Amino acid sequence: MALFSRRGSSDQPDQVPASGAESDPGEQVAVESVPHVGISVSTFGDHSAASTPAGSVAAERPPATAPESREIVPGLVDNGLLKAALAALSDDPQSTEIMNVMRQAMQGQLFLRAQGDVQALLAAGEQINLAIAALEGKRFLLAFSGGAALQASVDSENGASTSVIGQPAIEVLRNAVSSGYDGIYLDHASAGARLILPAPLIGRAVEEAEPTFEIKTLLSAPRDESTAARVADALSRVPVWVAGGADAEGRMGLAEVRAPDGQRRMEVFSHPLEVVALGRGDSPLPLQPEQLGRALASEPGLTGVVVDPGGPWIELDRDALAGVIALAAD
Asked: What's this model's pTM, rounded to 2 decimal places?
């Protein structure tokens, strides 16, 4: 099954097991190339989401930046974006909810539990045993969005001796697949805000990603006066995706946002899941930097782009994208 194919918001991937957030899963916690096409034209209200050429979908735009960093447990900075995505899950998570968790699980840090004193074990050259969940004969690596979820896990085992390891999320995802786990169980002890991400979904998400995760990292990190220029520079070097759809007559177009003041911005995405998670039925279409430059150069009426409109997002004007547009002449 193509994980990033066009689908409706009610479809659920076969690879994702039913995991009602409030249910008791009875787990045993153990130690162990795109052609240039025309731009679609749709009109939207202030701060609304773009639509495909087939119709418009009004929605409130999410916050531009990630939540302020919090340390519920001293020394552990929560992954606020992932925590919010898990908290938003319904009792019966649908495809778009699952994909939203998956996309947010690819930024920031994830935390792992290990048995005993990790520093002492490393000093002694001994093996580190990570906490896993055994479910129906499958093994899932336990990973956590922050301090509260970790504390809930420890409490569920009556305060078992444990150490916490924080790693870049992308490294945790890659290692989970390469180490043969059947997936990752996020915040397993947090009723109402937990989810299993199966290995096939993780593997495809990592495979489809731009290897450095540069744009996603920039958007999820604290912003400063250099952020816009750094994102624009990345757009001139790394591949991105756009949201494609067809109108009633079968004409293909790329989604854009239109504001009441007439500004038009093409939607650009750092990963195909950013398109799928919007739940609009758009198809993610990959673009190399020079193709993005040609698309912008061919539509002088475009004000610029909005990158990852599902949030965290950033808007860039044409002046900031001069380096990308210049690629069209190459």
From this structure: 0.81
